[in-house]
Records
---
Amino acid sequence: MTGLLAMFRRLEGPQTVGRGPAFWALFALVLAAALAYPLFSDGYTVGNTVYFFVWVFIALSLCLIWGYGGSLSFGQTAFFGIAGYGYGVLTINFGSAYGFTLLALVIAVAIAALFAVLLGYFMFFGRIAGVFLGIVTLAVTLMLERFMAQTAGPEWRIGAARLNGFNGMSAMPPLTIPWPGEPIVLFADIGLYYLVLGLLVLVYLALRILMNSSFGNVIVAIRENPERAEMLGYDIRKYQLITFVIGAALAGLSGVLYTVWGQYITPSSMGMTAAALPLIWVAVGGRSDLTSTVIGTLVVLAAFQALTIYGSQYALVFMGVLLVLTVLIAPNGLVLGAMNWLGRIAARFTQRAG
Amino acid sequence: MSLLELRKLNKHFGGLHVTNSVDLTLQAGEIHCLIGPNGAGKSTLFRLILGEHHPGSGDILFAGEDITALKSFARIHRGLSVKFQVPGVFRGLSVRQNLEIALQSRHRGTELEAEIGRLLHFLGLESEHTQIAGNLSHGQKQWLEIGMAVSLKPRLLLLDEPTAGMSPEETHLTGEMVQRLNADGMTVLAIEHDMAFVRQVAHRVTVLHLGQVFAQGSIDEIVADERVAAIYLGQAHA
């Protein structure tokens, strides 16, 4: 019991909004609803929900690096694409037997993380910061997009996997869990839904623990005042690099899950629009809070899709307007602003009751 | 015993010779004040000692060890600590969190809580502990940063204008705080313009002018030195 209590305490802290029994009761309620939801819905809608969930990981990666760490990375899509293509190349070559797709997921994410170690080392140990960090990361993702877009010729292949230029790679096997008798294939409906939901809850809780730990303290200290943080004895380059690599792994996870979901990946997933959209989700939600980022991303994604489906040609323009409104009305994020407002009302209510 | 020794330290910014062959020795246990007109190179000297700038030539010795090539954070680990000129607190975080970040690498759990409480009391910031640091008054921010610098239990504390913007009462209180820390064995090097403060705390004073050590001695000797008065009145070139 005390162990459970101690764990709960580590999930809460000054770096995350939402604490106490009321918050966790609500959390359990939302989770129960999410678990029960596929039973009352059709395969297509569930698959569409998976699509929304998939993007939350890259949003969380930006929340971590930008919102908490204060380093604006404009190129999280680079890791998204590297991991997506990585999964494709691996599974097209080695197939899906013996649970290899699960291993491929891990390897693809690891490749993205390794690339981040290399890129991050030169950036942070070279003391690149502020707007220049954004420029370098954006340049990297656009360069990767350009490169992949010109791989249409038959000479561009890795083993059996053709890179296919602008059309992208497709027909890689979905995630497959080995099972006695018949392996379980996670198509983009209920099966994949539960896997992605599980990963989402796991990542969300793990990040809450990380950000409320002493490591998280240093990360926000670097955001607030890097010079002061260093003069308290912290090697800030190391902390920035670790955060960047964790973020890259999360963006990579998004990329693999996206590839698995649609069984395709294209260069445009690393392009300008793709790179800019996660920034909008995170800014609108509230970049310096995990919960706000998750809620904001899901709401904005759903609204964006609704706009596109119901005929509006102006969905992207609407995104821009949304970003401008956020910056003007609630620079820390609309969802975060609303949550803080609710928190203040609740505090006043309990004060009056007490 | 000398705790800090600067040997023939030089630093150029382009054609500007901001630190010109500076020799300075700090004895363990002293309170040493660094004064001089604006542009004398005082803050640059601090940045050299802290490793934010690297000297063109010369050596920096701390407790007998050559630290000239060490990174800033490594120098902090050796026992240096600093309060900057512009209050360098974590503005968006609470007072408590500011102190926690300073203390967490040495203390954990209930011990950390006790240490934070002790420091809040020392700084007189107990009732402000949930306040966002950016909302504190200027003097309180100065104290909070001094508290963070002190919490590392440094052997040498560098203070860059610790009383800037403070009232005479606050300045005097800060002086007493520095003397208390010194009595506990902390060596202090302070850049300060407020002569009342210098008179209150300094064991020795060094005057820096045009990047060079211009004069050194007790506060009475410095005040009596006509050449020092002259550079403050802008007649040194005459």
Note: The two ends of chain B are 39 Å apart (CA to CA).
---
Amino acid sequence: MNSRSKDSFDNFLKNNQGIVFKVCQTYCQSSQEREDLAQEIIIQLWKAFPKFNPKFKASTWTYRIALNVAISNHRKAIKRKEFPVNWEESLVSYKEEKVEENPRLQLLYEMIYELNELNRAIMLLYLEDYNYDEIAEICGLSKTNVASKINRIKNQLRKKVAQTATPNK
Amino acid sequence: MEIQELKNVWQESNKTNPNQWKVNTLLLKEVSLKKTHSLLGEYKFTAIFETISYGIFWICIVGFMVDHWQEAPFAISAALLGLYAILGLIWGIYKWRQIQTINYRLPLAEAQKRVARFQLFERREIRSLLVLIPVFFVLFAIVASKSFLGLDLFELFPMWKYLILGSILIALLMVWILLKFPDKQLQKAQEFLKEIKEYEKEA
């Protein structure tokens, strides 16, 4: 990749890195795993970037790659010692910050981690306010299939919220 | 609490810690120079390595056959090994072609189906090798001893027929063991493939 395309990749990543991090947070629970996955996703984006067709929406393209890498790695459960590139410095660093604990956010994460890898992707896109057409395009499903899956996830979510509200039941 | 409320909580959480992540894009320049270790890269490397190895093995076997075509026991042993090498070569090329079709730019269902199918191929290949290795080991020993050490194992071991019979029995035992103890990774790949098919199915 020449320096011109390197610059355009820098811009591309700047605009879409939020997607990478959200995917990492959705698929990994520890900060080390998140760093490793973010690194792998960025490498895959970098490698695929010359084939990026600007007529596609950049966020959809980024989501496809990020989610595919996350699902594949999640299933393979690559250990850190085997992981990508041994740079002296890290390509990505993640700072675990003590945030004010939000029980609703925790509940949401609990719910996300309970879903399988494929439904987790739908849940993430739904929470990110993507419409059914976009979710269908990223996941490779029909719009009606996406709608019914989201309905099911929503019902699960409602049940979970209700259980938390009345823990003795 | 409504779903919309949870959605708001999620979207709000994205804004709270903008400095949690730091990307050093300067290091990206090194990606093309340094060897990276990725899942697909690993698969590609294995397939190419296997294909080349089988190719070299086949060339060596053909060379041996040409040298020993008048000695029937050696020529037959080499022919069987050559057949094995050819099948391995075809399988390696097929695997390599399969990997070429996997790319992460595809929609999730399609890309993951291809990855799962490939993993299934790989596990099946490992299991078949566990059966084939005992079968071909004796033949390999015969050809290798003659080729590298000039030893004629047919003469040294007049009971060679029993060795071949023994290796077939070991292979049969392997089949029994493999059936008795299913491969967990193979099952996982099968289950995931089933999961993807379910995922694609209209509700």
Note: The first strand of chain B starts at residue 21 and ends at 23.
